[in-house]
């Protein structure tokens, strides 16, 4: 994990070049044991488990029980990547057509399995549609603590405050 964090520091100095970060994260070979201390599940909601955070980036493990979903949300225009470490997740990417009225266009829908890398993402939803747990590793350049949630039924975009379920291997 320390090697990954040190490499992300180097990418921070380079403003996270997509042409370097993407292949690096695609080839990443983290062992299950390296992630275990950050894997906390909850039967009612997916969990955001902070591994490391500094000014230039944030590293997080997200744990998904069957049926759990992150609603359509934005990433504040920042570069972010999500790598499937265990199980599979459905990732739907969207493009904002207009903000008033809110209108999103589904760009693609992918069933992402272990090793799949999504990103850099802008607006997307993520869902565990399988009967098994899933774990994803997320890298956020220039971390943010709130984001926009897009409600397609009401046509409303709401800003929410983000929270961690655990930090540095300990429950909050």
- Using the CA coordinates, give the radius of gyration: 15 Å
How many domains?
Answer: 1
Q: Class by helix and strand content?
A: mainly beta
CATH architecture descriptor text:
Sandwich
Q: What's the CATH C level?
A: Mainly Beta
Strand line-up across the major sheet: 7-4-9-2-1-12-13
CATH superfamily: Jelly Rolls
**Average pLDDT number:** 95
- The counted number of beta strands is 13
Strand content: over 45%
Shape: globular
Write structural notes for this entry.
With 172 residues, this protein is mostly beta strands. It has one domain: Sandwich (Jelly Rolls), CATH 2.60.120. It is 15% helix and 49% strand. The protein has helices at 2-13, 18-26, 32-35, and strands at residues 47-54, 57-64, 69-74, 80-86, 88-99, 102-113, 117-118, 123-127, 134-141, 146-151, 156-161, 166-167, 170-171. The strands form 3 sheets. Strands 7-4-9-2-1-12-13 form a 7-stranded mixed beta sheet, with helices on one face. Strands 3-8-5-6 form a 4-stranded antiparallel beta sheet, with no helix packed on it. Strand 5 (88-99) and strand 6 (102-113) form a beta hairpin.
């Amino acid at each position: 994990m320390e090697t990954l964090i040190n490499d992300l520091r180097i990418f921070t100095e380079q403003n996270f070049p997509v042409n370097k970060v993407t292949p690096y994260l695609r080839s990443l070979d983290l062992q299950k044991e390296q992630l275990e201390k950050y894997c906390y599940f909850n039967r009612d909601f997916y969990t955001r488990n902070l591994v490391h955070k500094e000014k230039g980036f944030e590293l997080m493990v997200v744990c998904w029980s069957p049926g759990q979903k992150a609603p359509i949300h934005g990433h504040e225009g920042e570069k972010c990547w999500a790598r499937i470490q265990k199980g599979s997740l459905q990732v739907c990417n969207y493009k904002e057509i207009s903000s008033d009225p809110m209108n999103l266009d589904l760009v693609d829908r992918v069933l992402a399995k272990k090793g799949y890398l999504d990103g850099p993402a802008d607006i997307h939803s993520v869902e565990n549609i399988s009967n098994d747990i899933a774990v994803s590793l997320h890298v956020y350049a220039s971390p943010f603590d709130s984001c926009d949630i897009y409600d397609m039924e009401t046509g409303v975009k709401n800003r929410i405050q983000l929270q961690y379920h655990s930090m540095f291997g300990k429950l909050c």
